[in-house]
Design a protein that fits this description.
The complex is a heterodimer of chains A (about 280) and B (about 250). Chain A is built from 13 helices and no strands. With about 280 residues, chain A is an all-alpha fold. The chains are: A mainly alpha (about 280), B alpha/beta (about 250).
């Protein structure tokens, strides 16, 4: 099995897939912490689905689907940011923007004759199809996302866990919300290439939600979230290389097992501690 | 109206009378419709480091990865861009702030698992860690039980007394701050009266403010404000607009 892996690692498509996987995992792990804390699962879903529309739209006019994906999710982020920042509005705005975006996607699909393969790849992920060209774009987007998150890390944390006091202390809470949506759009466009539009939540929710179960230290939780995303992505790619099952299945399964372990393992530890202190 | 340095001012009044708007104006978050406002010798501005802010207790999510220590640290550097660890001097300040509110024993516990009173103590540490000159408190006692109300008020009142800090303390119940407030201002529908509790909280002044018969009772060292349901200007279907009985406790 090891021999087989080593042999496979010689192929360029395998190398590309692994590099892409690591990039996506780092970005997704970082962003995931804030997606969970800000309750933005629904927004992630909308960004991914309208990204899909953008992708098919770009294919239709003969442009790069990856650029289409990025454009679709960026436009969605800006529309959501402009229309609804207050929590009560946000849910409805995200839903209606997503519905309209997907409607366009249906139109584009019906116009695009050779849709089957590309559409399935977008919906369920096709990391082994990542080319060197795609990879360069992914590195750029990942770098920008990580730098962006680094710049706003502290005020974003403050605005996320303690928005009222953050605003009173002068943190531009509304601006931070919009900036985070834009970063999220970039992270979604990256992650879609590994797990696809439909399974996007596995990388943008599960690592953050799992890390929350493991520690109360915010910095450590961020590191753990990245670790879990790496484990799921790289582990999933390697397992998929050795079998005939798609990558997405392994990535979602590893992530889910991590969450269950953290959740029930965490409960057990708490019980033990409770028993010890009584 | 001028609030002198070191004064503990209690801002009282029914819901919707603009108490929170006053604080937002002081914080530079909301413009004034009319009039003018000076805060610590200048116009109000966002993020003034000389102002500490204690919000109403809202409760943290049970699982939020945040310790009391981290909440206080956000009071030091949460508004700064970028990331990074606290400097040694800042860590000492966080430690001192935790100690000042006696939050040391639970400073490393997940904040969502702490009681309301413990969380409010940490919020006071967060507000005081920057060594402010002015502390703005927006209903910091709401939804706390009586013992915690006393502890929290003593922490804030003690800080004002010892450090000579100015406090603007918004509350709908005057009783917890009776021993601390140098002055009260009572706001009702755009009308207000300021002075000592004995001057302001009288049946005559309050009836004038509410434009309706209001009785102010002093019972066992506590003050109770009782309005009449049929009073002019009040809508029976909207209990918020009644003069709130100030300090009804079991």
């Amino acid at each position: 099995m090891i021999d087989q892996l080593v042999h496979l690692l010689g192929y360029e498509f395998v190398q590309n897939a692994l590099i892409a996987g690591v990039l996506v995992a780092v970005v997704a792990g970082l962003v995931s912490r804030f997606v969970v804390a800000r309750s933005m699962s629904f927004a992630v879903h909308a960004l991914a689905e309208v990204g899909f529309t953008g992708s098919v739209g770009f294919l239709l006019i003969g442009l790069s689907p990856v650029l289409g994906l990025l454009s679709g999710s960026f436009i969605t982020a800006l529309v959501i940011g402009a229309l609804g920042l207050r929590i009560r509005e946000r849910d409805a705005v995200v839903g209606l923007v997503m519905a309209f975006g997907l409607g366009l996607g249906v139109l584009f699909l019906s116009l695009y004759a050779r849709y089957a393969t590309e559409a399935i790849a977008l919906l369920f992920g096709a990391i082994t199809a990542v080319s060197r060209g795609d990879l360069i774009l992914m590195v750029v987007v990942a770098a920008l996302t990580i730098v962006g998150l680094g710049v706003m890390y502290r005020p974003l944390t403050f605005a996320t866990v303690d928005p009222v006091v953050a605003e009173a202390r002068g943190v531009p809470v509304r601006l931070i919300s919009i900036l985070f949506l834009v970063l999220l759009a970039a992270a979604v466009a990256e992650a879609v290439q590994v797990v696809g539009v439909l399974l996007i939540l596995t990388l943008l929710i599960t690592p953050g939600a799992t890390a929350e179960r493991l520690t109360a230290r915010p910095g450590l939780a961020t590191v753990m979230s990245v670790g879990i995303a790496l484990l799921a992505t790289v582990g999933g790619i390697l397992l998929a290389l050795l079998t005939t099952v798609p990558v997405s299945f392994y990535v979602t399964s590893i992530a889910f097992v991590c969450y269950l372990t953290a959740r029930f393992g965490g409960l057990a530890v708490e019980r033990l501690r409770g028993a010890a202190s009584n | 109206m001028t609030v002198p340095r070191g004064e503990f001012l209690a801002v009282l009044g029914p819901n919707g009378s603009g108490k929170t708007s006053l604080l937002r104006a002081l914080l530079g978050l909301a413009p004034l419709a009319s009039g003018s406002l000076d805060v610590l010798g200048g116009p109000p501005r966002r993020g003034n480091p000389a102002i500490g802010y204690v919000p109403q207790h809202a409760g943290f999510d049970r699982d939020v990865p945040l310790r009391g220590r981290d909440l206080v640290a956000l009071g030091v550097d949460g508004h700064r861009w970028g990331f990074g660890r606290l400097s040694r001097a800042d860590r000492v300040r966080v430690e001192a702030a935790l100690e000042a509110v006696a939050a040391g024993p639970y400073a490393d516990a997940p904040i969502g698992r702490l009681s309301g009173g413990e969380q409010q103590r940490l919020r006071i540490a967060q507000a005081l860690v920057g060594n402010p000159k002015l502390l703005l408190c927006d209903e910091p006692l709401a939804s706390l039980d009586m013992r915690y109300q006393q502890e929290i008020t003593e922490l804030i009142g003690g800080w004002s007394r010892d450090k000579g800090g100015t406090v603007v303390f918004v509350t709908h119940d005057v009783n917890p701050v009776l021993g601390y407030a140098d002055r009260v201002v009572f706001v009702v529908n755009g009308r207000w009266a300021a002075g000592s509790t004995d001057e302001v909280l009288t049946s005559e002044r309050m009836s004038g403010l509410y434009d309706a018969p209001v009785e102010v009772l002093r019972v066992r060292g506590r003050i109770v404000v009782v309005g009449e349901a049929s009073g002019a200007g009040f809508d029976i279907d909207e209990p918020h607009h009644f003069p709130e009985p100030t300090g009804v406790h079991p």
